[in-house]
Amino acid sequence: MEEQLPAIELRDLIDTRDDLPPVWVAYPGSETFQVLMRPLTGARHQEMIEAAQKIEWDTVTMTKQVKLDQDHYRKLFGELVLVDWRGLKLADLKRLVVIADFKKAFLARKKEFACDAAAKELLLFHSPPFKTWAERTCRDVARYNAEREEQAEKK
Is the pTM of this model over 0.85? Predict the structure, then answer.
């Protein structure tokens, strides 16, 4: 007798809470590395900037000034925009960061590096090429989605 599996409906699979669903984007020059990235719209970007602001005392002008805490901004960016990744291997990592321990790196040469909060932070903090690519790409994806919606409305 066959076991009856519960019925699965489309609404059970699709996360309808997110108005901007993430998309997989291939990292340039890599054969395997792809990032699941959430588009970053102007409104969400402004919210991130406001959340990462801090007030500092300027001793020259003797006034309080609002400044952007770059470290906090990168952390928020990693949490919001970088949803997941797959296929990050040593060959890609060598292009993104300086490798400290070549013996360990050699042992991990066939391994894929997992995506977690600490890994996101490490790449965003220590890999300017990755950070720049991620910031540009998430805005490009948002712009592309907006253009597609605009074209659909015209039809």
Answer: no
